């Protein structure tokens, strides 16, 4: 802020606004938008995967055939053919998802805000993974919950750790079972079954956030939690990773008795997601495009994931460990205890390499010697160069 | 809900979600989407005013020239050239608005949600007009304020009524000075000066919501509150009424020390408004298109406003009064005391005519013998027919 702001009135901010702190990391990472920085920080999908021409054709077609439909106000619930498409896509293996369970959202981030609005009071207990998705913490925190970190290991949350004492009166458990942001880990089949059983028994409501499920590099998808308990799970999906994030299109699937509250909350929040972008997405995907398109995204990202794994193996000193994700966009690095990844970030940016420190992904006690690397934005040759520079900085700190 | 839902789990809803009630009016008005109903209910801009071809050309151009810009994640604050355009448009008559004060929102509705998030705690005093915009009540109510209705007359809120007792510790005053929804009334110049002076003196923060300012049918615009107190007013604008609502594009102008909190809240709410729609809007308007386009919208709506006024004068029985708005989309009807507009609506829909009863526009004590008519969606011939039917029903109730 410039000096003149000193003369401005003080706004009487809400308690939640006073608690919103400017993220130091976000400020640092703004620097990384410089083209000379090798950034493993952002979760930006590779623009090479955006179907530009198809989107342009769809826009043209819609504005010729039915401009009023594309440009007028529309239903809060979303564009019905798109809702039907979502319901059909999730209705597999004997599971039936109804279009009335689907709500189109302005990105998955909005689904998190709507769930915060409808499920969280000040002090409500919210169960999260250790670590968990930073964007979910940001959304939920506006509604002032009390977070409880669920015990986890290399494969994600441990259902046996969800004891009645830990989970009593929890308003929700939030999890990303597939290639979690930030760790890249995937919840095994048996744990999915156990977790879904707990949801079915009414132990606590489960939010299954699944932005990365389609980005499965080994071709061995696991069933969603939703498929085990379609009336007891809220499932979040997005078109950001398989079509284009700038369209800001996500969706949620919820039991009808929660869905209608989410619709009311959405009406008060932004009336509806843009008619135009919803219809473009439907026009692009309605004839099976994603099934042709997603394999090419997988191939690209798998190569970049392998390149990062190879670079880490080649350059990192002993005492540094990481996982090899089977999908998604991120991997997670554990540094020796004495290395603080916040301090490392400052040094690293001076060397033209960026990443996200691990601490902000923890709801409560953070591990400072962790960091998240994205492998989807930077091409393989640059990945090796960036990891080499980062490894040198880490070596100097051990 | 169908019978099977009885077996569904009860969700532990937040207090705010439990208070969200399904609007009886909204359910009734769903019927009015039937093409055989003459609907004066919706605030739907006339599709005849949508610049379909320009939007299609812009979409084509953007996806050819810079697909990555249109389809990638982008800044929470909004597309900088669009923010600069807004700042420049409001920098007139010696007032300087900086792009750093502008935040692009997913429709004006989102600006209301973000203001609720940043300014309202449970029980906070919020001052509103009598009646006021229903959508603002819906947004703010999620944050559980205590509403105080400000004294008003045919010209809008009365600054003398804003006594220190009434306004003490108010978190905000919310007003639509131009052609208010629902009444169509416009705040006179002198009252604007008085209200802006109160804001400058720090009596309370003022939110100036201005969706209809451009729809001025007599060509006699009045200065915004913002222009009198650019560092003390939050101004909301929208492209929904002058371009197309299905793009869901609005903006707010706020002092920087509040703006940065609004940006943080928006990041947690939907990350950013779609890159694609923001760039389309900018491409369409950057060379002065709105200044050519808006006069044609004004001409169309003025004719429809006149047609409604004439139809009311021709058909309504004695004891029914209404205003003749100088702009906007709505006019407001006062019925004899004994007529309840909720009951009238049910009868009216059976006759194929819809409107919105006045009661939901009151924050506290409602006047049941009022209703809102929109004149922008229905062409003049149908306006006369619909008003004739409505008048017959009212006559039968006097």
TrEMBL record, chains A, B:
Gene3D superfamilies, sorted: Aspartate Aminotransferase, domain 1, Type I PLP-dependent aspartate aminotransferase-like (Major domain)
Gene Ontology biological-process entries: alpha-amino acid metabolic process
InterPro entries named in the record: Aminotransferase_I/II_large, Class-I_PLP-dep_aminotransf, PyrdxlP-dep_Trfase, PyrdxlP-dep_Trfase_major, PyrdxlP-dep_Trfase_small
Lineage: Bacteria, Pseudomonadati, Pseudomonadota, Betaproteobacteria, Burkholderiales
SUBUNIT field: Homodimer.
Cofactor(s) of this protein: pyridoxal 5'-phosphate
Molecular-function annotations in GO: pyridoxal phosphate binding; transaminase activity
CDD domains: AAT_like (cd00609)
The name this protein goes by in its record: PLP-dependent aminotransferase family protein
Family statement: Belongs to the class-I pyridoxal-phosphate-dependent aminotransferase family.
Organism this protein belongs to: Pararobbsia silviterrae
Annotated Aminotransferase class I/classII large domain residues: 49-390
Annotated keywords: Aminotransferase, Pyridoxal phosphate, Transferase
Presence of the UniProt keyword Cytoplasm in the record: no
UniProt superkingdom: Bacteria
């Amino acid at each position: 802020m410039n000096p003149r702001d000193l003369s401005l009135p003080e706004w009487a901010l809400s308690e939640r606004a006073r608690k919103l702190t400017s993220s130091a990391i976000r400020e640092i990472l703004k620097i990384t938008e410089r083209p000379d920085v090798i950034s493993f920080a952002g979760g930006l999908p590779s623009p090479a995967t955006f179907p530009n021409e198809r989107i342009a054709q769809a826009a043209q077609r819609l504005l010729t055939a039915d401009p009023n439909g594309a440009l007028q106000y529309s239903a809060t619930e979303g564009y019905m053919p798109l809702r039907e498409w979502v319901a059909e896509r999730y209705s597999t293996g004997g599971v039936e998802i109804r279009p009335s369970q689907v709500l189109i959202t302005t990105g998955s981030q909005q689904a998190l805000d709507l769930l915060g609005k409808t499920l969280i009071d000040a002090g409500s207990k919210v169960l999260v993974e250790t670590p968990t998705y930073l964007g979910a913490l940001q959304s939920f925190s506006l509604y002032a919950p009390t977070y409880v970190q669920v015990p986890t290991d290399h494969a994600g949350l441990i259902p046996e750790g969800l004891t009645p004492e830990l989970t009593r009166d929890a308003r929700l458990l939030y999890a990303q079972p597939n290639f979690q942001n930030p760790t890249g880990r995937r919840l095994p089949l048996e744990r999915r079954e156990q977790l879904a059983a707990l949801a079915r028994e009414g132990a606590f409501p489960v939010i299954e956030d699944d932005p990365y499920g389609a980005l499965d590099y080994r071709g061995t998808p696991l069933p969603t939690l939703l498929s085990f308990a379609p009336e007891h799970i809220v499932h979040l999906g997005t078109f950001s990773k398989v079509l284009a994030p700038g369209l800001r299109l996500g969706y949620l699937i919820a039991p009808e008795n929660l869905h209608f509250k989410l619709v009311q909350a959405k009406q008060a929040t932004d009336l509806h997601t843009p008619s135009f972008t919803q219809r473009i997405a439907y026009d692009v995907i309605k004839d099976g495009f994603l099934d042709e398109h997603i394999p090419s995204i997988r191939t690209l990202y798998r190569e970049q994931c392998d390149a990062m794994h190879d670079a880490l193996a080649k350059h990192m000193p002993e005492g540094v460990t990481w996982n090899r994700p089977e999908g998604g966009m991120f991997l997670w690095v554990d540094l020796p205890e004495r290395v603080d990844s916040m301090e490392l970030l400052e040094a690293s940016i001076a060397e033209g390499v960026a990443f996200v420190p691990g601490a902000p992904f923890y709801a409560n006690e953070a591990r400072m010697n962790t960091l998240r690397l994205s492998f989807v934005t930077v091409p393989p040759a640059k990945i090796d160069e960036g990891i080499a520079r980062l490894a040198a900085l880490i070596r100097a700190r051990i």
